[in-house]
């Protein structure tokens, strides 16, 4: 074991965007995982022999586990960086809308945009409006949000042109039956429909630019705006998709009523309890993970994902099956997800930590279970007055979200009932 695998050095390690740099970082990550397994195996042996693990062994395992998390963050940043074109790259000839928008961003010249009649006023008053960004920028923002926002990356995403999406959903399914070739076809039962509503709410970011940045013709302002707003949008919507209360924001899947799986009903999210307040069971802790998997119907399991934060993942990383194999497995390649019991694991830092009666783990087919609604159009309002000498760009988009199939998501609750 070398000290390279025991310290959180990857936090400060250079992050080259080239393929060789990503490969090297991934090799370091895999070597650290091997070191983690070796140290954790030693800790488990001590538990069996002495009835308790040595403090130094436990600290060593935790230190390597933190290093794994640090290296995974590094890999994530490097993969994201590969998606960002350089700000000074050569560009193709801009479209008419794009050229007019750039004139507005750089110089505040609205004349070309006015002539294209692309101004999109907000729901308030005219002076509060802004100009819609070109399709190229909107597409770039959407692509990066899919990479940054954990729930968006696995949920269904639908673009709408209205402020509210209304979607009927059959809660009881359609009645069917077998008949002979010449037999009469009696009328089947009528399914029960639920009218689900997904209102959109305004999400905003306000990057600031210096006059020198705007005056530099080499800088690609389209990419600059997309890069500046992506993190702000992803952070805000990521929280809302998990815990949002639906008031001026999407409704998160943890905000819905939660009931024990045996009492599950439509418009509620079912959960499995660990049987221990704020912890897994001391013996066979992975049994409840198996119960959670099979609480989900077979039609949903094939596309299911685990969702939890890094602290919860670190606790599960130590679990083994009856054959001594680790349940948590590292990504097979850079840019891929870790696997837990054969299902992809999505890291969402807005999920709660393991604590008494917290539902710290979710499992389900989020593509069928959760719907993200994007209203078409991203607008930018240029403000050169409020923060002189900086120019502010008030950038907004409208986003909604909520559970669309309550049977597609299950939770693991760290409580006794």
Widest sheet: strand order?
8-9-17-14-10-13-12-11
Strand content: 15-25%
The shape, in one word, is globular
The biggest beta sheet, please? 8 strands, mixed
Distance from N terminus to C terminus (CA atoms, Å) equals: 43 Å
How many discrete structural domains? 2
Per DSSP, the total helix count is 11
Low-confidence stretches: 1-17, 86-91, 118-127
- What's the CATH class label of the largest domain? Alpha Beta
Helix content: 25-40%
| Class from secondary-structure proportions | alpha+beta
Summarize the structure.
The protein has 417 residues and is α+β, with helices and mostly antiparallel strands. It has helices at residues 19-50, 55-82, 96-107, 111-116, 135-148, 211-215, 221-243, 287-295, 298-301, 310-316, 366-369, and strands at 119-120, 130-132, 156-160, 164-170, 193-199, 201-205, 208-209, 258-260, 269-273, 305-308, 328-329, 339-340, 343-347, 359-364, 370-383, 391-403, 409-413. Strands 8-9-17-14-10-13-12-11 form an eight-stranded mixed sheet.
Question: How would you portray this structure in words?
Answer:
- The chain has about 425 residues and is of the alpha+beta class.
- It folds into two domains: about 5-80; about 90-170 and about 190-310 and about 350-415, phage-related protein like fold, CATH 3.90.1690.
- It is built from eleven helices and 17 strands.
- The chain has helices spanning about 20-50, 55-80, 95-105, 110-115, 135-150, 210-215, 220-245, 285-295, 300, 310-315, 365-370, and strands at about 120, 130, 155-160, 165-170, 195-200, 200-205, 210, 260, 270-275, 305-310, 330, 340, 345, 360-365, 370-385, 390-405, 410-415.
- The strands form three sheets. The chain has an eight-stranded mixed sheet. Strands 1, 2, 3, 6, 7, 15 and 16 form a seven-stranded mixed sheet that branches.
- Helix 1 (about 20-50) packs antiparallel against helix 2 (about 55-80) and helix 5 (about 135-150) crosses helix 7.
- About 35% of the residues are buried.
């Amino acid at each position: 074991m070398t000290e390279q695998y025991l310290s959180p050095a990857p936090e400060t390690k250079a992050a080259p965007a080239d393929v060789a740099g990503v490969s090297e970082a991934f090799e370091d990550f895999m070597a650290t995982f091997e070191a983690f397994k070796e140290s954790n195996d030693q800790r488990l042996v001590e538990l069996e022999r002495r009835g308790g693990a040595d403090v130094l062994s436990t600290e060593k395992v935790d230190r390597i586990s933190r290093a794994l998390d640090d290296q995974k963050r590094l890999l994530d940043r490097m993969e994201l960086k590969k998606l960002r074109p350089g700000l000074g790259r050569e560009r193709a000839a801009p479209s008419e809308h794009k050229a007019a928008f750039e004139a507005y961003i750089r110089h505040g010249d609205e004349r070309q945009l006015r002539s294209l009649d692309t101004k999109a006023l907000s729901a308030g008053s005219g002076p509060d409006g802004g100009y819609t960004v070109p399709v190229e920028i909107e597409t770039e923002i959407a692509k990066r949000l899919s990479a940054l926002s954990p729930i968006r990356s696995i949920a269904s995403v639908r673009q709408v042109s209205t402020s509210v999406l209304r979607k009927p959903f059959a809660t009881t399914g359609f009645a069917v039956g077998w008949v002979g070739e010449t037999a009469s076809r009696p009328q089947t039962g009528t399914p029960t429909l639920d009218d689900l509503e997904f209102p959109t709410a305004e999400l905003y970011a306000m990057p600031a630019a210096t006059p020198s940045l705007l005056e530099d013709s080499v800088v690609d302002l389209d990419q600059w705006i997309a890069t500046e707003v992506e993190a702000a949008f992803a952070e805000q919507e990521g929280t809302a998709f998990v815990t949002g209360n639906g008031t001026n924001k999407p409704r998160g899947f943890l905000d819905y009523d939660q009931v024990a799986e045996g009492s599950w009903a439509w418009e509620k999210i079912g959960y499995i309890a660990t049987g221990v307040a704020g912890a897994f069971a001391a013996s066979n802790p992975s049994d409840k993970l198996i119960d959670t998997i099979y609480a989900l119907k077979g039609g949903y399991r094939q596309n299911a994902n685990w969702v939890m934060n890094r602290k919860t993942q670190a606790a599960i990383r130590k679990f083994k099956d009856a054959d001594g194999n680790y349940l948590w497995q590292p990504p097979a390649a850079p840019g891929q997800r870790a696997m837990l019991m054969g299902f992809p694991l999505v890291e969402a830092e807005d999920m709660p930590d393991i604590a008494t009666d917290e539902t710290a783990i979710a499992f389900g087919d989020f593509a069928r279970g959760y719907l993200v609604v994007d209203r078409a159009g991203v607008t930018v309002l240029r403000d050169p007055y409020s923060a002189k000498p900086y120019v502010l760009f008030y950038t907004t988009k409208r986003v909604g979200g909520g559970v669309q199939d309550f049977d597609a998501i299950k939770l693991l609750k760290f409580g006794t009932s």
